[in-house]
Structure formats: structure tokens, C-alpha cells
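Example 3.2
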Amino acid sequence: MGCCSGRCTLLALCVLQLVTALERQVFDFLGYQWAPILANFVHIVMVILGLFGTIQYRPRYIVAYIVWAAVWITWNVFIICFYLEVGGLSKDSELLTFNLSRQRSWWREHGLGCVRAREEKAAAGLGVQPDQALVSGGLCALEHSYVEALHSGLQILGALLGFIYGCYVVSVFTEEEDSFDFIGGFDPFPLYHVNEKPSGLLSKQARLPA
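Structure, written as C-alpha cells:
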């Protein structure tokens, strides 16, 4: 019963991680964030591997998923520090784009509650189209850096729960493999050795004097 509940919980966590990773991948593609795109792709592959291992009772696949969960937690901690500018990091750097694009985040131009306005002075001075100007800062309900940090926090939560339940499921699978004895499977003596016992007894009985 514990194995079933652990497997079901891990399956649900893997599915939830897949959904959130795909959602994040879409917005990272829209923002041309190449480093997160590559990380999300590897994460999706490893979550699918963990999902397959959970369904097919493959502890090695789940162990690989557990190791990746620890790496994924570390990566998302870095993303939070990056967008919150912790430890000397700057969210305006081109670290996540590999210097291939000037965009920083899709949420920077399409933030929650941000108001688009025509800044005539900025458009005239910088040659920017008036409809492309975005009033950020105080007119945004939630800054893009906090949106990215919340995304990473959700990923950390899912990976942490997956790490815990993955370790639990692997331990249960290992205990079941050690305790479950197939006929002739885990027996150090082969099956034919058991069949030899009656013939040995018959030979001993034949040697007894009448």
C-alpha cells in the first residue's frame, strides 16, 4: 500500500513537473532565453525518464531522476539569484541569452499588470515606435524579475518533492526486490538441485538391506 501511494504521488509530481516545465519553456522561447531553454529541455527529458522508471519499476531511472532533481534545484536557485541580483549578479546582463539577443525576458515586456503607453519623447529620441514603448516600474502589478523568481520557486518545490518521493520509491523497490523470491530466481541453488533430492533418497533406500 505504501509503495502504491508513493508511486502514485511520484507519478503525479512528474506530470506536474512536465506541465510547468513546458509552460516555462514556451515563455523562455518567446524571450529568447537560450540557457534556460537548454536547461528546460534536459529537465523535460529527465522527468520523462523518471516517469518511465516509476511506471516500469526501474529504480535506476528513478535514481537518475533524483540526481537531476538536485541539479535542477541548484539551477533554479541560481536563476532566482540572477533575477533578484543577489551576489553581484545583474538581471540586465546577457548571461542567459549567450549574447545572441538583446531580450532579457518575455515577462519584461509583457509583465503582469504592465501598462503600454506611447512615450513620445522616448520614441522621438531613440527612434522607437510609440506602440513599442512600455511603461514599466511602478505601473506593473508584478515586476518581471519577481515573475521569473516565482517560476523558479515553483520548480524548486516540485523538484524537492520529487527528490523526496523518488528516494522513498527507490527504497521501497529495493526492499521488494530483496524480499521477493522468484522460483529459482534469487535462490542460490538452482531448481534442478531441488529435483535431485528425491532421486538421492531413492538411491539411499535402494542400498538399505532388506
